[in-house]
Amino acid sequence: MDDKNMSKEFGKVGVLYGGRSAEREVSLMSGAGVLQALQSKGIDAHGFDTGLRSIAELAAEKFDRVFIALHGRYGEDGTLQGALEQLGIPYTGSGVMASAIAMDKVMTKRIWLSNGLPTPGFRVFDSQSTSAADLQLAADELGLPLMLKAPHEGSTIGIKKVNSGVEVTPAFAYCAKYDEVVLAEEFITGRELTVPVLGRGRNARALPIVEIRAPQGNYDYQNKYFSDDTQYLCPAPLDAELTQKIQAIAVRAFNAVGCAGWGRVDFMLRATDNEPFLLELNSSPGMTGHSLVPMSAKASGISYEDLCAEILRSAALELHASQDWKAE
Fold it and tell me: Global pTM?
């Protein structure tokens, strides 16, 4: 499709980025990349920083659709999606409920378990009232090493790996700074994988699997976004049968939560038996120079620019006014 037709198809497009979450820095990078990609295809795209500008200003822009390049709270958690539903502006990615669930690692795991999908064992603790004895019991039940996570954050923010009993309490205190609850999760020793998913429902499809090999196995914020030492293997070196199995689980996990448009499903592949375990689901993944969805798309022959256009094309509203509704 030529640039003129692209512009006509999409109309005036807003790229929502920045925001107010702990992932603002990453979102600014994602948004800049998406904005440049859409403009390079002749799309009338404009950046809009939701951390600096109001919902009233968003409404006044009269965008025909928006690309959500926000990560974390107030952008990926269903709150902005609800506002866009009220404004009647089609948006990329999952709807209100699926966005809220995917942002909550605990609720996501509960839904996966109810659908017979594999995820590491876990316990949930209140950030304010949990005792050292409670934490030690979790370490005894789940084993060491143990992962502690703030379940409503992303980009590896609010996450600590616990290797010994004396580390449990300080690691919990660190994670508790980010959330009202802390997720204690069984640590799966093995290979770290991620699977991007595009589409919705029956049409959802998995892209090539990416294997992440971080220095000392520590895929933290620095190694995720700024280090050149982290290795990415795409497609991941897995046999065809295991690749298909993991991709099928990714699509099932995506659909179980009710996600749509695009997302990324993170796994650990256990070293002892090559069994995959679901870790979390990102409903608005990064789109930076180090991000994994563009990397996977490239491996399947989809350029960054075409990926952005495909995601934008999927922009939609979940709710529609009744045909009987009329303004007074």
Answer: 0.91
